[in-house]
Design a protein that fits this description.
The strands form two sheets. Strands 2, 4, 5, 6, 9, 10 and 11 form a seven-stranded mixed sheet that branches. The chain has a four-stranded antiparallel sheet with strand order 1-3-8-7, with no helix packed on it. The protein contains no helices and eleven strands. Helix content is 0%, strand content 56%. With 117 residues, it is mostly beta strands.
């Protein structure tokens, strides 16, 4: 059974940084796509970034490009999201997810990020 557990959220001032972690277990992720999504207060869930676990290629939403970095540690089966130059509009619940085929089928419980102005 795939399990994803996020951590690292918190309260930070605008311009600050946070690093989110997502500990993954339950299967091999060597052929997986793993991603970060977020749900801002009162809004729909939105894509943030994704990484091809085996080859490391990445893709970002325009809103975070140049400020956020997605990475993974294969030995620890852990996904990361380094968030720099945080803005109040980055306030959201952040989720990691991984695919089963062509859809994101497995989700973590989320970690809250709040950026104060």
């Amino acid at each position: 059974q795939v399990q994803l557990v996020e951590s690292g959220g918190g309260l930070v001032q605008a311009g600050g940084s946070l690093r989110l972690s997502c500990s993954a277990s339950g299967r091999s992720f060597s052929r997986s796509i793993m991603a970060w999504f977020r749900r801002p207060p009162g809004k729909e869930r939105e894509f943030v970034a994704r990484i091809n676990w085996s080859i490391g290629t990445t893709y970002y939403a325009d809103s975070v490009k140049g400020r956020f970095t997605i990475s993974r540690d294969d030995a620890k089966n852990t996904l990361y999201l380094q968030m720099n130059s945080l803005k109040p509009e980055d306030t959201a619940m952040y989720y990691c997810a991984t695919n089963n085929g062509y859809e994101y089928a497995y989700w973590g419980q989320g970690t809250q990020v709040t950026v104060s102005s």
